[in-house]
Write a structure and sequence with these properties.
By secondary structure, this protein is an alpha/beta fold. It is built from 10 helices and 11 strands. The N and C termini lie far apart (67 Å).
């Protein structure tokens, strides 16, 4: 009996030690698909330099990342917009106090199929397209073809910024096709000669064509000097003031000679 008791106590101690080992050095990051490439790139470098730390990263949108922060299922929430007052209220009621850290800058770029001849839209023209008031590319100086409008879903921080800066809080018309990520919009536009969409700067590639907005090209320079009209900071939110591995990772991300070097490599605009 005594031997059995000792064995049970030893097993319990071993299980506790194993649980602590699993929990120690593990970070969970959820949220914005815009911030996702930054988080993935920086985390890859960080884990190489800190092999004892494992970082789990997933997208799903800014709103979903903040929800995960509120319910305590993530250590860091990536967000391409600032947290809303109602979200702060929910977090505080749940015993969490979100702390924001700007990690990069970004501009939202309207994109079309590379075969489309259009080059520039004003903010007013973009709004008219996304309200469904303009239905043919011919009205915008393009080919005589119907416009297929592609937008982000409402849980997206990119959608929130587009809604504020382009739509002036007016709703995108119901006929728009909704996509859950920047990557999905790139794929949809690249396969449809009639489509228009909008994506974070870091998702630009040769499969789509970027449009100027009010005659300004979206770039690192125009984002930093404020001349590009659809730009924004990108954030990582923590549950209260970060500690331990979370603090070390955030410090790495925002450090000019560390994480910020990889922001550019991810296709975005560094803070400094």
């Amino acid at each position: 009996m005594k031997l059995k008791t000792c064995w049970i106590l030893s097993l319990a101690a071993a299980l506790c030690l194993t649980a602590n080992m699993v929990l120690a050095g593990t970070l969970v990051i959820k949220g914005s698909t815009t911030v996702l490439p930054i988080a993935q790139k920086v985390a890859e470098i960080y884990m190489k330099q800190h092999p004892d730390v494992k970082i789990s990263i997933s997208g799903g949108g800014s709103g979903n990342g903040i929800k995960a922060l509120i319910d305590g299922s993530t250590d860091i929430a990536d967000s391409s917009r600032f947290i809303k007052p109602k979200e702060v209220k929910l977090a505080v009621e749940n015993g969490e106090y979100p702390v924001p850290f700007a990690v990069a800058y970004d501009c939202i770029v309207p994109v079309v199929h590379p075969s489309n001849s259009v080059m520039n839209f004003t903010l007013a023209q973009l709004k008219a397209i996304y309200k469904g008031e303009v239905k043919n590319w011919k009205e915008m100086g393009g080919p005589d073809r119907p416009i297929v409008v592609i937008s982000r879903d409402t849980s997206s921080g990119t959608y929130e910024v587009w809604s504020k800066k382009v739509m002036n809080k007016e709703r995108v018309f119901p006929g728009a096709l909704l996509q859950a990520s920047n990557g999905a919009i790139v794929q949809a536009v690249s396969k449809n000669k009639n489509a228009i969409g909008y994506i974070g700067f870091g998702y630009m590639d040769k499969s789509v064509k970027a449009l100027m907005v009010d005659e300004v090209v979206g770039s690192e320079e125009t984002t930093l000097n404020g001349t590009y009209p659809i730009s924004r900071p990108l954030y990582m939110f923590t549950r209260g003031w970060p500690k331990g591995d979370t603090l070390k990772f955030i410090n790495f991300v925002v450090h000019p000679q560390k994480g910020q070097k990889y922001v550019s490599e991810a296709g975005y605009v560094p803070l400094y």
